[in-house]
């Protein structure tokens, strides 16, 4: 895991990044700025249990491509999840919390993931581990209203104007952050190649 100092606020931005693209950079930039983060861990996963591994580029390649486009020094590209032997977010977040008791974390996800978030293993546990910042993505703006996660944790929604305080709230707590959106997607980029 990247080095952190006591009391820091850190965003956790996980994904396959297959391939990483400027839309990922935009989400990271919005999260850094709107949440007032000290760091953002760009967590390149070994694989996604909900997605086919048929077209998954090698982990080292996805890390190198991520490092090439993530030029903010506060972004730490990492693949520590592989060394943990984890492929499920809930377990990874438990390990992160165990090893970093005095750090304030926020899980960051694109709004396009809200639609299927309730299919993730232990999704309610994820929502109760760290606060969540959902960043707007094209075609997914309304998903925060209709998703099972949004309905289940409606009581824990924090107004976007208070996003900078999200890391200081006890989970469950989440917010939806509107902002510039990139039409890029890894799926579309793979289809072009």
UniProtKB/TrEMBL annotation:
Superkingdom classification of source: Bacteria
Q: Where is the signal peptide?
A: none
One Pfam short name: CTP_transf_like
Q: What positions does the domain Cytidyltransferase-like occupy?
A: 12-191
Q: What is its EC number?
A: 2.7.7.18
Look at the named UniProt entry and state the broad enzyme category this protein falls under: transferase
Please give the start and end residues of each transmembrane region: none
Q: Which reaction does it catalyse?
A: nicotinate beta-D-ribonucleotide + ATP + H(+) = deamido-NAD(+) + diphosphate
Q: Name one GO biological process term.
A: NAD+ biosynthetic process
InterPro entries for the chain: Cyt_trans-like, NadD/NMNAT, Rossmann-like_a/b/a_fold
Q: Which UniProt keywords apply?
A: ATP-binding, NAD, Nucleotide-binding, Nucleotidyltransferase, Pyridine nucleotide biosynthesis, Transferase
Pathway(s) this gene product operates in, as recorded in its UniProt entry: Cofactor biosynthesis; NAD(+) biosynthesis; deamido-NAD(+) from nicotinate D-ribonucleotide: step 1/1
Q: What does this protein do?
A: Catalyzes the reversible adenylation of nicotinate mononucleotide (NaMN) to nicotinic acid adenine dinucleotide (NaAD).
What HAMAP family does this protein's entry cite?
NaMN_adenylyltr (MF_00244)
Q: Which family does it belong to?
A: Belongs to the NadD family.
Q: What is this protein called?
A: Probable nicotinate-nucleotide adenylyltransferase
């Amino acid at each position: 895991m990247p080095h952190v100092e006591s009391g820091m606020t850190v965003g956790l931005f996980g994904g396959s990044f297959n391939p990483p693209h400027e839309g990922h950079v935009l989400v990271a930039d919005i999260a850094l700025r709107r949440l007032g983060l000290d760091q953002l861990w760009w967590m390149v996963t070994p694989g996604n249990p909900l997605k086919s591994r048929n077209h998954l580029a090698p982990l080292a390649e996805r890390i190198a491509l991520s490092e090439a486009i993530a030029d903010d020094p506060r972004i730490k590209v990492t693949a520590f999840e592989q060394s943990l032997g984890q492929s499920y977010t809930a377990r990874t977040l438990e390990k992160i919390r165990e090893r970093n008791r005095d750090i304030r974390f926020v899980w960051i996800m694109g709004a396009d993931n809200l639609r299927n978030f309730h299919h993730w293993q232990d999704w309610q546990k994820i929502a109760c581990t760290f606060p969540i910042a959902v960043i707007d993505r094209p075609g997914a703006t309304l998903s925060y209203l209709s998703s099972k996660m949004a309905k289940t944790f409606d009581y824990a929604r924090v107004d976007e104007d208070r996003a900078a305080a999200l890391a200081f709230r006890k989970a469950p707590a989440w917010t939806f952050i509107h902002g510039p959106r990139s039409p890029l997607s890894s799926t579309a980029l793979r289809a072009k190649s």
